[in-house]
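As a warm-up, study this chain.
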Amino acid sequence: MLLLALTGSLSTGKSTVSKLLSQPPYCLPIIDADVLAREVVEPGTSGYRKIINHFENTTPDLLLPEPAGRKGRPLNRAALGRRVFGSTPSRQRDRRILNSIVHPAVRWAMVRSFLYYYVRGHWAVVLDIPLLYDSHLDIFAPVVLMVAASPEVQMSRLQLRDPHLSIEEARDRVASQGGVDGKVARTEARGEGRGYVIWNDGSREELKQKVGQVMREVERGRKGIWRLIFLVFWPLAIVWAGWEVALGLWGRRRWEAQANRKGE
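Now compare it with the structure written out below.
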């Protein structure tokens, strides 16, 4: 089964592409990292308890009132976001702590979901994850789809979606997921057939056409008999997966070496 990693920065249109891929003619299962990130910090989970232990004393409005019919007070995600989004050293430190709690739990949830769809016989699954490169999960993805948009378009979309955000808060949230240019360059550096950049500065119909072009290339040679072979002869699937991880690791190290040379 092919793992398609779908990534992009805030308000680039990644969620729209994810929705397109889940619908006909593709009908691909979606593993949404943001959804998993919410599930692993629900009341009663280990992630929830760790967040409470670290942030509750310094974040008075961290918890919302307990909903009717449910046990436990859910996290106030807006308050937690104000605590960790930003460029000051303290906010960066808190964001690293939060990520160290959430990311491991999300990875295990991803593995369980991937195995579930593999057993179900799907030819591909989409991993929808905004911080693909930051979390170093790109090495596990044979194909990366990067949805990009200009900074001006990002800001206008974010303010339209979340009008309660101030200009500064909107900029902090966009900056927290890294610049688009770096992700674009990194995706293109993966090479032909392994990295696709989908620019989304236009209409939804234009985006739909671009997604269709990319998926025709991705599907070529990856559907049909190979899906059956990898499902029946699972040891071959393991060997293939190991080879893809090795390629991904080699590509990441090459990119990091190039970045270090440019910084010297």
